[in-house]
UniProtKB/TrEMBL annotation:
<dbReference type="Pfam" id="PF00364">
    <property type="entry name" value="Biotin_lipoyl"/>
</dbReference>
<dbReference type="InterPro" id="IPR050709">
    <property type="entry name" value="Biotin_Carboxyl_Carrier/Decarb"/>
</dbReference>
<keyword id="KW-0092">Biotin</keyword>
<dbReference type="InterPro" id="IPR011053">
    <property type="entry name" value="Single_hybrid_motif"/>
</dbReference>
<protein>
    <submittedName>
        <fullName>Acetyl-CoA carboxylase biotin carboxyl carrier protein subunit</fullName>
    </submittedName>
</protein>
<feature type="domain" description="Lipoyl-binding">
    <location>
        <begin position="1"/>
        <end position="71"/>
    </location>
</feature>
<dbReference type="InterPro" id="IPR000089">
    <property type="entry name" value="Biotin_lipoyl"/>
</dbReference>
Length: 73
């Protein structure tokens, strides 16, 4: 089953911490967003495998936008 990881704030993608196919554990940082000069990590909601990355570094994102698709491992 796929899990959508969404942005919790409007901001800019500062850094992508994972790659497609990478196994991650719950609470691992997937993406770092920058908003109002603050870095906001976006953690993995569960253990799983990164299946799709829908953003790239430097992209502007809106709150609730899908950033990463994960599959349970």
């Amino acid at each position: 089953m796929a899990e959508e990881v969404r942005a919790h704030i409007t901001g800019t993608v500062w850094k992508i911490e994972v790659e497609i196919g990478e196994e991650v554990e719950e609470d691992d940082d997937l993406v770092i967003l920058e908003s109002m000069k603050m870095e906001m990590p976006v953690p993995a909601p569960c253990d799983g495998i990164v299946k799709e990355i829908r953003i790239k570094e430097g992209d502007a994102v809106e709150e609730d936008q899908v950033l990463v698709i994960m599959a349970e491992s």
